[in-house]
């Protein structure tokens, strides 16, 4: 099988990304893991008693994308909302320790989105979500847009990371894309259903298959690839990168010969798929900012995803790991 990118080109793009600045706009989350043991039932009710041995904090959502960008070696600036609460301070501290700029965090009158997972011996027992997912108020949107303008002004690429938590309302989406296009920088979108058709003008639109089929209200038949480029035109984007879990990815571009390029997965072992999509998004932005074609960026992001799913939880992937995976893959 012919490789879609050679090692010299891969090294060049990974090195070039280190001087790039990526703006990430979207829904940030704090992930809390309470790890411990369960060895008895409560006398108060027929429920297990979880004895916490360890409390681990991690970045989720757009914050995880931002830390993935920083792990590649890029400068990463996150624009997101947080509450006036301890979780906001913990999230900001984590971002800072990962090398991400935090001046774009906007404090609003709602709790910081926090997801607490109770885990016993690697088995998740319960997840507790503390969040408000209503659209941000017009006053908060105005503050968000101020930070978006500042972030895009010096950015080499823009990521819009939507988790339906109220940051990426139409006004923020439209203004962000307009400013990025005015500067001629790539725009990478990780969409969710609420505003799925609002990202016209983006460079790479990256849903997974389930999200795309839910939005279209119909199954996506990859065996009839000739029909897929019309999807790009319907969405009003330059390309669609459809992630297909264990089946890799499909890059769909209108106006290109063949229209669809399949990219096989490179994962050797799948341990945990949490955060793989965030890693793909980060690498797409970094590689496009470094001058990669959309196909090259997708291929490199695919290598990164193959590494991430072999790790526990939402993890980052370094450029050195991508080079090692490229060498080990053998094709």
Report on the structure:
44% of the residues are buried. The chain has a single domain, classed as 3-Layer(aba) Sandwich (UDP-N-acetylmuramoyl-L-alanine:D-glutamate ligase). With 331 residues, the protein is an alpha/beta fold. The mean pLDDT is 90. Helix 1 runs antiparallel to helix 10 and helix 2 packs across helix 8. Helix content is 36%, strand content 27%. The strands form 3 sheets. Strands 5-4-1-8-9-10 form a 6-stranded parallel sheet, sandwiched between helices. Strands 3-2-6-7 form a 4-stranded mixed sheet. It has a 3-stranded antiparallel sheet with strand order 11-12-13. The chain is globular and about 65 Å long. It has 10 helices and 13 strands.
Radius of gyration: 20 Å
The whole-number mean of residue pLDDT values reads 90
Q: What is the CATH topology descriptor?
A: UDP-N-acetylmuramoyl-L-alanine:D-glutamate ligase
Please tell me the total number of domains: 1
Which descriptors would you attach to this protein?
globular, single chain, alpha/beta, 4-stranded mixed sheet, UDP-N-acetylmuramoyl-L-alanine:D-glutamate ligase, 6-stranded parallel sheet
Give me a quick take on this structure.
36% of the residues lie in helices and 27% in strands. By secondary structure, the protein is of the alpha/beta class.
Write the layout of secondary structure elements.
Elements: H1 7-17, E1 21-26, E2 28-41, E3 48-61, H2 62-72, E4 75-82, H3 86-97, E5 100-107, E6 114-120, E7 123-130, H4 138-153, E8 157-161, H5 170-182, E9 187-190, E10 204-205, H6 209-216, H7 229-235, E11 239-243, E12 249-253, E13 260-263, H8 276-289, H9 294-308, H10 319-329
Parallel strand pairs: 1-4, 1-8, 2-6, 4-5, 8-9, 9-10
Antiparallel strand pairs: 2-3, 6-7, 11-12, 12-13
Helix pairs in contact: 1-10, 2-8, 4-5, 8-9, 9-10
